[in-house]
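Exercise 3.2. Students should predict the tertiary structure of the chain below and write it as structure tokens, then compare their answer with the key that follows.

Predict this chain's 3D structure.
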Amino acid sequence: MIPAEQIKDHAARAAAMLVEDGMCVGLGSGSTAKLMVHHLAERATRDGLRFRGVPTSRVTADYALSLGIELLDLDECEVLDLNIDGADEIDPEFRMIKGLGGALLREKIVASAAQRRVTIVGARKRVARLGVVTPVPVEVSPFGLIHIRKSLDAICASTRVRLDAAGGVFQTDGGNKIVDCFFDGLDDPADLDRRMRQIPGVFETGLFLGLCDTVVVGREDGADLFDRPV
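Answer key:
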């Protein structure tokens, strides 16, 4: 396994160890979250761990089902004990950018419902300032897409409608579109989030604020856990 994958795997394994018997767990999307789901399935087989998962995307759902993990819809889970997901960037205040994988709306709904939110990353995902490298994805209505993008252009350095691998306009699991918004760094993520969400047709932004309680940072030889500063 190459070092980058080792780092992801160590973070994913450490996060999977946080799941306790009987829990209902949010299962995030993306490559590191996929590794975490794999380790949870291993624990179920090896240790008899009993848990149920709430997937944040169809891709995650399909993979979890292929491993024999019992899944629930979010509304079937009375208490969501724990959510485990990755991030595209996370700053020292545990504010995050998520959504490069296209599942940001469902990821945010699940994270908001969880009693504890755990984020798994490699060291390179930890940044001093959000938005210097990574765009902020914004999930929007397919109706009026061009006009919604124009409104976002007024508050962003530049924007781009996300395309899929075939060159068509990318579609989320909910049938929506994504506009990726670029900046030279974010001075006030909360204000930006508020301004974006005031635009008619914007369903959700990839700014995840106050939605991480613990971050698990992978290393080549293990992982470190950090709790959000009080």
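Discussion points: The mean pLDDT is 96. The two ends are 37 Å apart (CA to CA).
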